[in-house]
Structure formats: structure tokens, C-alpha cells
Inverse folding.
């Protein structure tokens, strides 16, 4: 209404001014004008004011908020992220009606991490495209953007240390700085991933001396056993290259996480092809050590570097099984995507076991979180109507066959302390334009948001949910 303002307290103006500006900017196209920002919570509220308060809120977790609506609207939270989400709720309400319903709401997400993984290695997404998706994500209260920056097909980020490995149309430092800055304002954590020590064909094409070379027999029993995508982590020169890569890229991303990937490195079928790994494992870790300990030891070594930069390491789950003597450090976060590793022959550790061992686990399971091309009998895109009706974040599912059959299903307790949340994973190459990808993933991101916030379903049917989405987050 005329005369409405955004009011913040003088004692917390430094922390709240940015939140008030963001809210004023985003409200402007909804209500047709930009609300002024004023200091002074002590003064009497005017009808139509929006008042923001940062401080302890009884019975509301740190990532939640309380919203009271009467003559004025009052949002309170103990974190700036909570206040930001309260603002998203106000915007959603005003997009449905030109008035706000009276009452009090206390709201918070069930799961702490809710997000999108984007494969920018196989597909060259522009900075502008990624920023648009960040803004859409913020409207859904999603808070994690995982950038898969490198893979066999392409090194998708510029490099000063290794400029020869960089692919076409990479994200440069200015792109990364802009993405990180926008994400910070929207309270979205950017998680960078430089996939190592597997999936390094783009790097090894220019640095073949660092490749894990076959010393064992390659025969008819192992027709696909040797891939030129593995860094030889037994070589000091390879470890020096890893450290250079980390030293270059870690400072570009101020968020709390660094993702190593560490997936699809060594299935059982390749052990005989690389006998030097078993020799190295025993020499370094003692009797009883196996090839699995080589990758586990590498993960732990990188973990030490990442922790020295005050960050937390993340890895995919499929190389955490196998026998040996070296467990992966418990501080490493596990992004769970599959119940079977490369070639399906290396046992993986179940989500329940990982949680019981003290790991924190994010659900990025192929079903229903993959947005990818169909691969043989495997479906790349789950039916979201079924997911909306029947699936929950504590259900860890393997691949979905194109017949609709899900190959595995594992449940953990919905309130398991280490269960972090859910993530849509967009993998390339996709037989579609990036504009088509944006349109295709938006309803899926909305389902991720709904399931990981875990509030009551706002619509009985998926069609009704999509109609509501078009209204509140167009």
C-alpha cells in the first residue's frame, strides 16, 4: 500500500541493509514500485511496513524464520539466510494475492542442503545462464550450486598454471567471481568440483607422463579395462600437479566446500592391469593394504590440503567400498549417487552404513535426481509426477531402467543427523539447447525444493504443483 517501507533496526543495520536492498529489488516488479529502506524498529509501524529483525527467535532453528503479518509484516531470524527466505515467502504470497493473510508462521527446512549440480565440463553454460538459474533457485529457497568444472571431455575453467588443458568457451576468473558474488547475495553456496584422480583425460592429453599406465595384462578378459583418464597418484610429479591445481583454484571459491569428485577411478576388473597400485599400497600402508587404499589415501591427502584452507572436502560415493586398511576421513562429505561403481563390480557402502560411521551424506541418487541423456536401458530423467507423489529425500535409489523399474532402493531414517539433503544433478552431453535445459530442470528443481524443505505438499496433484510454481516463481 502507499507509504509502505522496509524497516530495519539501527543496531543491526550493517548486517541487514544488504538483505533489505535485495528484498526491495525483488519486490519491485511484483508490487510495481521500490519500497524505501529506513532505520528504526523502535518507531511505530505504519500499515504495510515490512520490518526485518536479526536475532534469536524462540523455537526456530538457525536456518528458519518467523513471519508475523498484521497491519505490518514482521520477519525475524537468527541468520541473514533465514531473513532472506522470509523475504522469498513474502514475494510468493504477493504473487498470489495483492494482500497478505494475517497470522504468524514459523518456518524452516528439514534438510540443510538443497541444490543443483551442473556439469559445465561437457556443456558450456555461460555466466549469464548460470546467474539466471541462481536467481530461480533463490526463489525456491535452494542454497547449493555444485559446479562440475572438469571431466574427460573438457576442462571447463581457465587455468594460469595449466593453460594448455583448457577447453573451448571455459568459465574465466571474471565469470567465477560474478557467479560467486551473486550466489553470496542469494545465500547460495557454490561448491566447485575438479574431478580427480579419474575423469582426467582432458588434462592427461596434454600431460601424458602423469597418466596411470598399464603394466599388467590387457586381454580378452578385460576388453574395456584400460582408459586414458586416470592420474597416477603413486607418482610424486602427479601429486605436485594436484597441489598446483588446488593452489590455483581454491582461492577462487570462498565457500566452505571443495569437491574432489574421486569417482569411477578403479573397478576390480582393472586391478590386474595396474599391478603397481597394489605394490604401492603395501609399501605405503603395510600388509593388508589393497588398491582401494590408494584412492582412499589420495582422498585423505587432498582432505588435508582442503582443511588447511578452512574448507570441507566432498566426494562421490562409489570408490568408498573395497577391502583394505585405510578408511576415508570422517570429515569428508559424501555425495551419494549409485549403489554400484564402474562396471558394477566394486561394492559400495550403503547410505545407512555411511551415516552410521559418522559421515554426512547428501542424496544425489540417479533416481530421481539425474537429468541426463538415456544410456542404453538406463533412464536419464525420472517422471516428476511420480516423484512428487511417492518419493522422499531419505530414499536412496539407484539407476532407473527405461521400463520404469528402479534397480535399488535403500531407506535411512528421515531424521538421521548426517542426512544433509538432496540435489538435482544435470549431466551432459544433452541433446538439447541450454534454453531447453533451463526449461526442463525448473520443475525438477521445484520438486527438489519441496521435498528437501519437507513442508506439507502445497497441491494435491503434480499438475496443481506446476500451476502454483508458475505463479509464485515464474
Amino acid at each position: 500500500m502507499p507509504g509502505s517501507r522496509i524497516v530495519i533496526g539501527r543496531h543491526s543495520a550493517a548486517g541487514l541493509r544488504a538483505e533489505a536492498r535485495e528484498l526491495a529489488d525483488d519486490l519491485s516488479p511484483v508490487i510495481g514500485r521500490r519500497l524505501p529502506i529506513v532505520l528504526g524498529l523502535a518507531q511505530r509501524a505504519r500499515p504495510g511496513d515490512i520490518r526485518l529483525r536479526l536475532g534469536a527467535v524462540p523455537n526456530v532453528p538457525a536456518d528458519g524464520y518467523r513471519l508475523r503479518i498484521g497491519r505490518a509484516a514482521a520477519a525475524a531470524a537468527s541468520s541473514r539466510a533465514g531473513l532472506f527466505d522470509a523475504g522469498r515467502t513474502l514475494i510468493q504470497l504477493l504473487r498470489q494475492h495483492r494482500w497478505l493473510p494475517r497470522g504468524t508462521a514459523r518456518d524452516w527446512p528439514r534438510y540443510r542442503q538443497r541444490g543443483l549440480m551442473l556439469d559445465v565440463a561437457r556443456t558450456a553454460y555461460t555466466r549469464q545462464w548460470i546467474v539466471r538459474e541462481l536467481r530461480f533457485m533463490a526463489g525456491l529457497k535452494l542454497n547449493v550450486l555444485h559446479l562440475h568444472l572438469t571431466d574427460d571431455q573438457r576442462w571447463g575453467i581457465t587455468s594460469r598454471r595449466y593453460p594448455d588443458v583448457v577447453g573451448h568457451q571455459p568459465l574465466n576468473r571474471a565469470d567465477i567471481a560474478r557467479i560467486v558474488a551473486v550466489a553470496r547475495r542469494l545465500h547460495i553456496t557454490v561448491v566447485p568440483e575438479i574431478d580427480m584422480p579419474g575423469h582426467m583425460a582432458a588434462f592427461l592429453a596434454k600431460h601424458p607422463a602423469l597418466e596411470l599406465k598399464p603394466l599388467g595384462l590387457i586381454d580378452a578378459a578385460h576388453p574395456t579395462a584400460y582408459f586414458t583418464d586416470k592420474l597416477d597418484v603413486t607418482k610424486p610429479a602427479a601429486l605436485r600437479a594436484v597441489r598446483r591445481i588446488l593452489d590455483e583454484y581454491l582461492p577462487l571459491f570462498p565457500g566452505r566446500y571443495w569437491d574432489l569428485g574421486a569417482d569411477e577411478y578403479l573397478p576390480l576388473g582393472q586391478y590386474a592391469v595396474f599391478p603397481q597400485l597394489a605394490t604401492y599400497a603395501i609399501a605405503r600402508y603395510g600388509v593388508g593394504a589393497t588398491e582401494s587404499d590408494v584412492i582412499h589415501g589420495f582422498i585423505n591427502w587432498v582432505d588435508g590440503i582442503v582443511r588447511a584452507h578452512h574448507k570441507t572436502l566432498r566426494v562421490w560415493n562409489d570408490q568408498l567400498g573395497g577391502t583394505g586398511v585405510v578408511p576415508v576421513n570422517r570429515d569428508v562429505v559424501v555425495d551419494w549417487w549409485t549403489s554400484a561403481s564402474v562396471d558394477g563390480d566394486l561394492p559400495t557402502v550403503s547410505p545407512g552404513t555411511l551415516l552410521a560411521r559418522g559421515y554426512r551424506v547428501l542424496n544425489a541418487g540417479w533416481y530421481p535426481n539425474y537429468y541426463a541423456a538415456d544410456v542404453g536401458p538406463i533412464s536419464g530423467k525420472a517422471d516428476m509426477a511420480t516423484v512428487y507423489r511417492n518419493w522422499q529425500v531419505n530414499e536412496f535409489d539407484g539407476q532407473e531402467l527405461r521400463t520404469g523399474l528402479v534397480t535399488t532402493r535403500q531407506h535411512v531414517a528421515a531424521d538421521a543427523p548426517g542426512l544433509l539433503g538432496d540435489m538435482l544433478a544435470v549431466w551432459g552431453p544433452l541433446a538439447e539447447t541450454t534454453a531447453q535445459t533451463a526449461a526442463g530442470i525448473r520443475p525438477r528443481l521445484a520438486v527438489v525444493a519441496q521435498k528437501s524443505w519437507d513442508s506439507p505438499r502445497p497441491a494435491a496433484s503434480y499438475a496443481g504443483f506446476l500451476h502454483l510454481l508458475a505463479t509464485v516463481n515464474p
User: Anything to note?
Assistant: The chain has a mean pLDDT of 93. The chain is about 35% helix and 20% strand. The longest helix spans residues 434-453. The two ends are 23 Å apart (CA to CA).
